[in-house]
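Priority: low. Protein: Divalent metal cation (Fe/Co/Zn/Cd) transporter. Input follows.
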Amino acid sequence: MLMVLSAERSAVLTRRIRLLVAATIVYNLGEAVVAIWAGRVASSAALVGFGLDSLVEVSSALAVAWQFSARDARTRQAREAKAMRVIALAFFALAAYVTVEALRSLLGAQEADPSVVGIVLAALSVVIMPALSLSQRRAGRELGSASAVADSKQTLLCAYLSVALLGGLLLNALWGWAWADPVVALLIAVMAVREGVEAWRGDACCGSAASALVGGELTGEDGCCSDCSDGGSGCHSGPDRS
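Result:
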């Protein structure tokens, strides 16, 4: 079953996504500065990787902000594929850097020191990131925007990584398990590659149906092509490149 969003509802969701994207940019910029600084001080590949992931979040959010800066739904749809590619490339760049640094650490280049600042930062992100992700994912799915959903998945990835980072930092601080730091960094790299591939393929959502209607947005019953799982006709595998 498909439903048409009214122009008023579409405008509300678009404004909501803009606000959530702005909040994500502000938080992640602060998170990146603190994490990279703390990571350099503690020689922590995981913390530096986490900070770089925050910069990926910023680039992703900026790509979505650029897409949703357009007032016209058709223009936003035309920008969708480009936004998804920017998100994917940012993920791949993050994965490459973090992998190199983690392998250097595992091979004995330098062991990570405990970081109280990193522990506090990771704990804050465990609380804040899921809330931002859930709000944007709901709005993006209802609006039918693949890039907004992809960006929310990056934010959720940040939450998962926060949990992994917190665990690794605590293991190092409490028991001196320095090897836990590069292992967490490699986990960050693997998850980044996975999300990058999905973003490149346009798999985050079935794709926006904004181009299907004039004066309204078309979306699946659950907000984003719920009939994808059964091969419904409203589904397609990637962003519209027409």
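Confidence is low (pLDDT under 50) at residues 205-242. Residues 7-42 form the longest helix (36 residues).
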